[in-house]
Write a structure and sequence with these properties.
9 helices; Metallo-beta-lactamase, Chain A; globular; alpha/beta; 327 residues
């Protein structure tokens, strides 16, 4: 364990040396890696800041547990019930905030079922792509409209931030107000960085953002720690200690399932993650995750993949990510 901490600390020190930005403070403590821990049946944490990366096949879904007992869901899987089954398994009956990154089936496919089955306090999305003609999107759009009539839907523009209890969500995309192609949809993904008042650690969720999107993020945010989003959005600011950039984060939800078109080195050396989490399935025709990207991620972070099982990251005084494998 001590050896692993030393290696991670060395990686962090090297990344700091090559950073183009001055950083006040230090990167958070190196992670504790528990690759093969055997857990009993997963349950909702009693307290503390934690994030579950749900094993939903070649799709995305993550559940954030705030330290004041609220729940934030980012994407909902592809509609094969795995996301809602996980929520029910751990006893979740209310989602305080739901965020959808973009309109692909593997991100919104399960959202309508969850909205119809549980109370959802607020839905956030980028409002693009309303001409998408697919049955998953039509179901999602209908569920979104029902929430909108209740005052529970917010369309997000770039450079926005909201508070959910003591947890801040920074929305860092999209850049344009139109969807021209599948590529444009991916690169207009609504990106969310999550911080908590009760934790020194942060998470960034990339949707299907690819290299062109990453380049814009680096150019726009690289040497700016908060883009003015830290105050005036409903509560006290939630700082990210030692962050040279608002996209600097301790846990990276890797963009586009580890596609060869994502996770550029310029982006990764700005984020400087301790953990990189990939959501993919071994049985996919896209070649994801790319072996090139796996090697690149492994050089700067500890890489985990939800195809091995549900992943929980506990982010209190230490950052610990592990697979939730039942006995």
């Amino acid at each position: 364990m001590r050896f692993r901490r030393s290696i991670a600390a060395l990686a962090i020190a090297l990344s700091a040396m090559i950073s183009p930005c001055d950083v006040s403070g230090e990167k958070n403590e190196a992670p504790v890696s528990i690759d093969n821990i055997l857990m009993g049946s997963p349950k909702d944490p009693d307290s503390g800041f934690a994030v579950d990366f749900i094993s939903v096949g070649h799709a995305d879904s993550a559940l954030i547990h705030t330290s004041d007992n609220k729940h934030i869901l980012i994407d909902c899987g592809n509609g094969d019930h795995r996301a809602i089954d996980y929520l029910r398994k751990i006893g979740i009956t209310r989602i305080d905030a739901m965020i959808t990154s973009h309109n692909d089936r593997d991100h919104i496919g399960g959202c309508a079922e969850i909205i119809d089955s549980m109370e959802v306090g607020m839905l956030y999305d980028h409002g693009l792509g309303n001409d998408v003609n697919s049955s998953p999107f039509r179901r999602y759009a209908a569920a979104r409209e029902r929430l909108s009539k209740l005052g529970r839907y917010t369309k997000i523009d770039k450079d926005s931030a909201v508070m959910i209890g003591n947890t801040r969500i920074y929305f860092l995309s999209p850049y344009s107000r139109g969807m021209m192609s599948e590529d444009a949809d991916n690169n207009n993904s609504l990106i969310a960085k999550i911080t908590s008042r009760d934790s020194p650690f942060s998470f960034i969720f990339m949707g299907d953002c690819e290299e062109r999107c990453e380049q814009r993020l680096v150019e726009r945010y690289r040497c700016n720690p908060d883009m003015g989003l830290g105050t005036g959005h409903g509560s006290d600011p939630v700082p990210d200690p030692g962050a040279a950039s608002i996209i600097d984060a301790d846990v990276l939800k890797v963009g586009h399932h580890g596609s060869i078109n994502s996770s550029s080195m310029a982006f990764l050396t700005t984020v400087t993650p301790l953990y990189s989490i990939i959501s993919s399935d071994s049985a996919n025709s896209y070649g994801q995750p790319s072996q090139v990207i796996l090697k690149r991620l492994g050089e700067i972070s500890h890489v985990m993949n939800t195809r091995e099982g549900d992943i929980r990251c506990i982010a209190d005084n230490l950052l610990i990510c592990y697979y939730q494998r039942p006995f």
